[in-house]
Structures are given as structure tokens and as C-alpha cells.
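can u do me a favor
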């Protein structure tokens, strides 16, 4: 049986009560122009052909679907499968929407593409896409994340982007978003802000989701080909939510499939050191859209934390908020310790070093597999590889 879902988003960019364009009128006009250009270009045969060719010949799609046999045998219970987005060019799912955004920016005649980055995967992917299409790229990144994610910082510089260190506030992802957005507002007519997740004002939650939905389309087809059936559970980590919504979209109407998003519990939900937005957040506005977010008593975004730099954002994509309220997707958490355990376990049982972000989903899959029957299957979006995290983890665990 299938679940019937309405259009997401509506014409005003709302997923239920979440999303929209909570921005000044002059910026709304710019966002509406981006929406019109996107809707126009995405339906053309030329754009679809160019993107498909780049997916195949540049990114290396389709990414493989891999059964983690040794991990599954070790755990007992359900079989765990990995959608290997870590094998994409640049090492993560981010290249999927960065190519689309860079092509759109060039089509619109923009002179510079701006973005924020946390773990650096979005920054590397966007710098890569901009080098490919020949457009200037500027990436804003928190000072703490620059120190933590040195390999990705080096790659961005090699690719020719202008890297702007952000030293204000928490010096992490939220402040990088603020910094990049301020630069964008200097000249929104000529600059293009390539948002790195399914967040921000409309049309970005829709647009990034559409570019990322190739993950779920491929995974669904691959799983059916290998098993003649759908997985029992699909699962992904959730920060802003792009890799998760990319996997989830093609399964949302499949009633037999349980869908789970895994948020970062950090040092514990009973501490201030987490970024579990959907689990502990309240409804509010951040960065031009309405969503669940983590706030202080004055309604300001909290200084959130995760061991995974790509997950420490105090808001979350509006479609995830809507799917939570609909009870179509379950949102759970994994702690730093559980993440690190999954990081090492997957590395040492399968020879696959995951990104710390992705390791949150692996951690919950390891826990859930033990509660399920051996004939059942869990599909995890392994959204990125752990090259960027290897030195940090080795130092932290004294390996």
C-alpha cells in the first residue's frame, strides 16, 4: 500500500506550517527570481542532459549499494545495507546539489557563488562545481571547524575558492551561515547563495531536495534489483537534512517502509551540548524560514554542539518538521560516544571509514538491527567518507 501525500511545498514554499520566505521584500523578489529560473531550467532537456552526463561521468553515479555482511553478522538480526554516497567525487552527497546550483547560477548570469560550510564537504563540493563551470566561489567557515577539518580546508584552497574564516560567536556553522548571508546581501542581484542543505527561504528547501532525491531513486531501484522487495527501514543522519531527505523522498509513500532520521545527541540530551533540533526544539524562525529550532529564553538560536561539524546547526529543514508532525518519519538521536563506536566498528569490520555525520546513522542502525529479525533489512545513507575526520578521531581516541 502507498501513503498519499500532498504537494510539498505549496506555492508559497510551505511544508504545512514550516518553510516560507520570512525575509525583506527586496530579498523576496530575488528569491522569487531564483525560483522562476529554477522551475524554467530544470524542465529543459538541455539541463537534464547536462546534469545526467555530469552525474555519470564526473560524479561517478550511480553510487553503489553495498551489503555490510561482516557488520550484520557481528550484530545479529537485520541485514544492514549502505548507499555509498561516500564514493561520489568529493566524498559525499553534497556534490549532487552543488552541481545543480552552480549550473543554475551560471544560467542566471551570476558573477559569484557564496556558501557556508561546517564539516567542509559542502564547501569542497561547491568549490569543485564552480571550478568545473567557471564561476567565482567564496566559502565562509567557522574558525573552530577550520581547525577541525583541515583536509577539506586545504582542498577548498587548491580548488581556487576564497575561504573566509568566521571568528564571531561560536565560530561554527550557524555563524558561518550568518556571515555568508551578510556578504550575499551586499549584491544579491549578481551573487548566488548556494545554501548547503534543505534549509533557508523558499525555493532552497525544495531545490536542494530535488537535486538530492537522486539518492533515493537510485537506492530504491538498486534494492529492488538485488532483493526483489523494499527495505524494512531506511535511515540517515539529520543536521540541516539534505542527505536524509535525498534518501527519504522516494520512500515516503511506501507504507511498508519505516523511515528514521538520526540527530546528534552530542554529550547528552540532558546537557546543553547537543544539536537535536527535532527532538528538543520548538517552533520558530531562523535564517528566513520557519522550522523547529533550538532557542534560548529570548528566542535566539542556541550555540549547539555535535562532534560532527556538519550536524551542529540549530535549525532543520522545513520538510523534516512537517514529516515529524505527520508522524511519517521518526526522529531519534545518537551520542558522540555512539557515533565514535560506529565510526571504528564500520572501519574495522568493512574497511569503510565513514564521515562522523554518517556514523550517527550507522550507530542507530547497529542498535536497531539487534532488535529485528534476520530476514529484515535496514538501508543506511552513508552520506560521506571519513578522510576529513580521521586525524581528529585518531587524536581524540589516542589511536
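np, heres the sequence
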Amino acid at each position: 500500500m502507498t501513503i498519499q501525500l500532498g504537494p510539498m511545498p505549496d506555492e508559497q514554499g510551505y511544508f504545512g506550517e514550516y518553510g516560507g520566505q520570512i525575509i525583506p521584500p527586496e530579498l523576496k523578489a530575488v528569491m522569487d527570481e531564483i525560483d522562476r529560473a529554477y522551475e524554467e531550467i530544470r524542465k529543459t532537456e538541455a539541463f537534464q542532459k547536462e546534469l545526467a552526463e555530469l552525474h555519470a561521468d564526473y560524479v561517478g553515479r550511480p553510487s553503489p549499494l553495498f551489503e555490510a555482511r561482516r557488520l550484520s553478522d557481528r550484530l545479529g538480526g537485520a541485514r544492514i545495507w549502505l548507499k555509498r554516497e561516500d564514493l561520489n567525487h568529493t566524498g559525499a552527497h553534497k556534490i549532487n546539489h552543488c552541481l545543480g546550483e552552480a549550473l543554475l547560477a551560471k544560467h542566471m548570469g551570476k558573477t559569484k557563488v557564496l556558501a557556508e560550510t561546517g564539516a567542509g564537504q559542502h564547501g569542497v563540493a561547491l568549490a569543485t562545481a564552480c571550478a568545473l563551470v567557471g564561476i567565482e566561489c567564496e566559502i565562509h567557515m567557522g574558525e573552530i571547524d577550520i581547525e577541525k577539518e583541515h583536509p577539506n580546508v586545504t582542498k577548498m584552497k587548491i580548488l581556487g575558492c576564497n575561504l573566509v574564516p568566521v571568528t564571531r560567536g561560536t565560530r561554527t556553522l550557524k555563524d558561518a551561515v550568518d556571515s555568508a548571508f551578510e556578504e550575499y546581501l551586499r549584491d544579491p542581484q549578481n551573487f548566488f547563495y548556494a545554501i548547503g542543505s534543505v534549509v533557508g527561504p523558499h525555493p532552497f528547501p525544495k531545490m536542494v531536495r530535488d537535486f538530492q532525491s537522486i539518492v533515493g531513486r537510485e537506492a530504491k531501484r538498486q534494492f529492488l534489483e538485488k532483493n526483489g522487495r523494499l527495505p524494512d527501514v531506511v535511515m540517515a543522519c539529520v543536521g540541516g537534512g539534505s542527505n536524509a531527505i535525498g534518501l527519504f523522498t522516494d520512500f515516503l509513500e511506501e507504507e511498508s517502509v519505516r523511515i528514521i532520521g538520526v540527530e546528534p545527541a552530542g554529550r547528552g540530551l540532558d546537557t546543553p551540548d547537543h544539536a537535536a533540533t527535532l527532538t528538543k526544539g520548538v517552533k520558530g524562525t531562523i535564517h528566513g524560514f520557519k522550522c523547529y529550532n533550538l532557542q534560548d529564553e529570548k528566542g535566539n538560536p542556541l550555540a549547539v554542539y555535535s562532534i560532527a561539524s556538519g550536524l551542529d546547526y540549530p535549525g532543520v529543514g522545513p520538510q523534516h518538521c512537517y514529516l515529524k508532525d505527520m508522524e511519517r518519519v521518526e526522529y531519534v538521536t545518537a551520542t558522540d560516544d555512539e557515533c565514535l563506536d560506529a565510526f571504528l566498528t564500520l572501519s574495522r569490520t568493512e574497511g569503510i571509514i565513514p564521515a562522523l555525520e554518517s556514523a550517527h546513522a550507522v550507530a542507530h542502525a547497529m542498535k536497531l538491527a539487534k532488535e529485528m529479525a534476520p530476514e529484515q533489512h535496514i538501508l543506511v545513507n552513508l552520506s560521506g567518507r571519513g578522510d576529513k575526520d580521521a586525524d581528529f578521531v585518531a587524536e581524540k581516541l589516542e589511536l
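The CA atoms of residues 77 and 372 lie 5 Å apart. hope that helps!!
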